[in-house]
Each structure stands twice: as C-alpha cells, then as structure tokens.
Amino acid sequence: MPNHVMNRLTFRAAQARVDQVLAEIAYAGPLPVEIACTGPPEKGVVCGPGTFDFNKVIPMPDDIDWSAPLYAEAYVAIEGRNWYHWSLVNWGTKWNSYNGSRTGPNSISFHTAWLPVLRVIEALSRKYPDVEIEYAHCDTGDWGAHVGTSTWRNGDCVRANSPKAPIGGRITFCLRRTTYR
C-alpha cells in the first residue's frame, strides 16, 4: 500500500487559458481505469472534471505490458517494458493521478502514490509555456518526508521551497499548502 501524496496545482494565466489547459489534461476516457486514472481499480476510482491524466502530458506507449508479473525474472524477460517500471521511470510514481477534483477556478488537487511527480509537472510546464504553474505536494503517510512547493514557467523551476523544519513545522506547511479548498 502506498503513502498517498496530496498534490495541488494552481495555474496563473487568463481564465479562458486556464480552462483550456484543465480541459486538455483531464481524464476523458475511453481508456480503462487501470491505465488512465488509477488508484487500485478495485477501489472504483472516479475520473472527470478537475482530474489530471498524466498520459495527456507524458503518454504511456501502446506496447507497455499490463499483464506481465512484476517479479524479477519476468521483469528481465520483458526488458522492463511493463507498466510499473515505465510509470516509475517516466512519471516518478507507480500510478496515474487519482482522487482528483477542481478546487477553485485556477486549481486542481489530486493524489499520487509514494512521491511527488516533478517529471510530470516539468513536462506540463513545457507543454504550456505561457502558463505559470505552482505545484504543492505533501506525503500523507510519512508526514514531512516529501513536502514542498515549486513554481514552473516554460519547463523551468523558477522557485522551490522544501522546508527542513522539525516534523510539526512540516505538517503545518503541508496542511496549509495542499488542503483541498
């Protein structure tokens, strides 16, 4: 079971542009839940407005093996071309985003498994160079282990903050930056 990382994206641009970006990155189907908007499929994850489909930014190749077991011998046999390995290497997390929602006119919140998704945010910023993106993240299972904010423009991180305060300070920072509004 993963630690769930709370993530919040805030977009700075004209409202029409923000609405366009949010529509373009939202999960819209027809891919199966396991591919497009995961969390464990048995949990019945629901996708829709305010969601963030990482495939819209860094698409998973069609030849990825979804059926291969993840144990070492199988991994070697398929040369790492399974969904798990690909997701970790390219997205920085094992699953696509889940539990997404639009939390304001210019913001969305979602969960990821284990880690923040900086590779995805960098690619998102490159895809929309005219939009400034603020990214806040907080690991809910290991309070304070992965906490921070960053601001992105044209694929570059122009500002970052990852507090090194004692655990209480990191929890406060975490709750202030990522709480769903």
Characterization of the model:
With 181 residues, the protein is of the alpha+beta class. It has a domain at 4-58 and 93-159. It has six helices and six strands. The protein has helices at residues 15-25, 33-36, 72-77, 83-91, 118-127, 167-178, and strands spanning 4-12, 98-104, 107-113, 132-139, 147-153, 156-161. The chain has a six-stranded antiparallel beta sheet, with helices on both faces. It starts with a strand and ends with a helix. The model is unreliable at 31-44, 165-175 and 177-181 (pLDDT under 50).
In short:
The protein is α+β, with helices and mostly antiparallel strands and 181 residues long. It has helices at residues 15-25, 33-36, 72-77, 83-91, 118-127, 167-178; strands at residues 4-12, 98-104, 107-113, 132-139, 147-153, 156-161. The chain has a domain at 4-58 and 93-159.
Helix fraction, binned, reads: 25-40%
Largest sheet: 6 strands, antiparallel
With helices defined by DSSP (H or I, 4 residues minimum), what is the helix count? 6
Alpha carbon gyration radius? 16 Å
* Principal-axis shape: globular
> What would you call the structural class?
alpha+beta
Topology at a glance:
Blueprint: E1 4-12, H1 15-25, H2 33-36, H3 72-77, H4 83-91, E2 98-104, E3 107-113, H5 118-127, E4 132-139, E5 147-153, E6 156-161, H6 167-178
Antiparallel strand pairs: 1-3, 1-4, 2-3, 4-5, 5-6
